Amino acid sequence: MTHAQANTTALAPWLELNLQQFPLEYADQLSSHLPMALHALHSLGADEARMAAFFKSYSRRFDGVPAPAAEPAARDWLGVRGDWSAYSALRSYFELALAAEGRDARLRRVLPDLLPGISAVAFHGAIRLAHAVQGGHAGELVAALAYWASRWQRLPAPPQNGAACLSLTAWSERLVAGAATWRSEAPNIFLRMLEASGRPLYAELAWVAPAPAPTLLARVAELASLALGYYLHSANFTVLHMITGLRAVRVLAPWLPQDKTFQIQAQEVLTQAFVAAYMAGRVQWREIPLTAAVATWAVLADAATLSEDDHAIKLVHACRDESAAYGDPRYLQAAAMALR
Question: Is the pLDDT of residue 113 over 80?
């Protein structure tokens, strides 16, 4: 039995304390990774002392910034979707809705309207929600839903040009080659994604993407494999978010509609976000020597729990999760790279 299985209640107090004390963002619209990293640390086996130390260390980023105050519930969440100032009203709304409907019914109701905004704050709306679902804390689930809804951002759909579909390999090669000649200087990932969505390469690749896969999960698996390969050849910070973002979609997929129309539309949205994120990454493609033999997951998990790097912690957790889902041994290499 793992540490996480043996002590399933150890995470809740830390998530609750975070909600009571800290905001959702800090500095220049940077998403707080504290609740996500806490869940990852717990899942990787961090003990109580390590959880406390990481919480104290990370909390310094919020110096002087209070947690959001409570507000009356929004009457129509879709009417204020994408309005950051409505976060507290959305949080009150989702708190009442979850109490009335339960988790599964509420997720099935709202996720179809949230997914088109998957690019929100560089996938962090979806990423935080996936961690919240797995963490099992009702308050964090409410906060994650409200965060995604208030920061909801949909990339523009490019005009259809009737181009033929490329194979997955050819499409990926065109993305890598085309993105190498474009660079944005916007400070945040999501701003660079927005800028990328106005470029001809985005329009081209969004419409010559491979034909729809049989299911959304099948397309997620294909894109996850590509993102993993990109990371192994770049160790790129934005590609890291593509890996954790795709993991989030896989975790949330059971609550998404299964009808063919939605599944195809969801693949289009995800493909557009994938293109924009890779372009936003300013990826420097290079041959990074891979270790012939790397440590086991147990060793990497232990190392991650001692890290102060919230992104490394989350990536090791995500890679272990994705390795279990897909059986791809390259995830072990990626996790080891994140801890170097």
Answer: yes
